[in-house]
Amino acid sequence: MIRIEKLKKKYRDNTALDIPELSIPKSQCFGLVGNNGAGKTTMFRILLDLVRATKGRVLVDEEDVSKGEQWKTKVGAFLDEHMLLSYLTPEEYFAALRKIYRLSEQDLMLHLEKFKDFFNDEVLGKNKYIRDLSKGNIKKVGIAAAMLGHPEAVLLDEPFENLDPSSQNRLKRLILNERETNLVTFLISSHDLNHVTELCDRIVLLEKGRIVKDLQERDDMSAILNEYFNVT
Ligand SMILES: Nc1ncnc2c1ncn2[C@@H]1O[C@H](COP(=O)(O)OP(=O)(O)OP(=O)(O)O)[C@@H](O)[C@H]1O
């Protein structure tokens, strides 16, 4: 579903990303890990055409994201709160997205119903602007928005950061459920090795913009990652 070809991103002399080839098939749960500055966010930003690559390209179903528009109907994402309209309440924001995605009110209601436990009665009906919610609750709005509109692929940058433990577990269940019932492809970057190894059937480890490991055997992932990150 997603293919990276000869991708390079340079900031002056600093090579932030250098990926000769990477293919992510439909309905894969793809985890992206690496130390600070490894290039995870850069890769997501190029995938969403928020940043232009220095060389190479990213294809979504064979369409170059820097040239076409069709992929935008297939990909949902939440990278950070800049992607939200934080002067709106969550209800106003979801209503605006409903119109953009041409969904019925019933569709939106059913979607938000799926997130009821995740929202934990702290997101909807509070009469608060998104900007006034806690960091964790802002993240919840962004994640629910990323999954709205029946996307075929969803990119989440550090989705577990700032979430309380119950919310982290609820999010894992939501992701697994979306993947199983709607065959959604997930790309998830995280510093939480336990969550990614539990969720993902493939984990790519970036170091200084390069892929140093592409792990696809679930049994070995934890040990290899713990050794790399020196977790005891
Ligand atoms: N706008 C920019 N201008 C200059 N350098 C940048 C810019 N954005 C990213 N970089 C550099 O690109 C490299 C990769 O950064 P990136 O944010 O993608 O890493 P990351 O893996 O997401 O890190 P973290 O885990 O800290 O979020 C870093 O060396 C960073 O300093």
Automatic annotation (TrEMBL):
Species this protein is from = Negadavirga shengliensis
Please give the Gene3D superfamilies that the UniProt record associates with this protein.
P-loop containing nucleotide triphosphate hydrolases
* Keyword annotations of the record: ATP-binding, Nucleotide-binding, Transport
Question: According to its UniProt record, what is one Pfam family this protein matches?
Answer: ABC_tran
What superkingdom does the record give? Bacteria
Supply the SMART domains for this chain: AAA
Establish whether keyword NADP is in the entry. no
Q: What is this protein called?
A: ABC transporter ATP-binding protein
- Chain ranges of the ABC transporter domain: 2-232
What residues form the membrane-spanning segments?
none
Instruction: Report the InterPro entries cross-referenced here.
Output: AAA+_ATPase, ABC_transporter-like_ATP-bd, ABC_transporter-like_CS, ABC_Transporter_VariousFunc, P-loop_NTPase
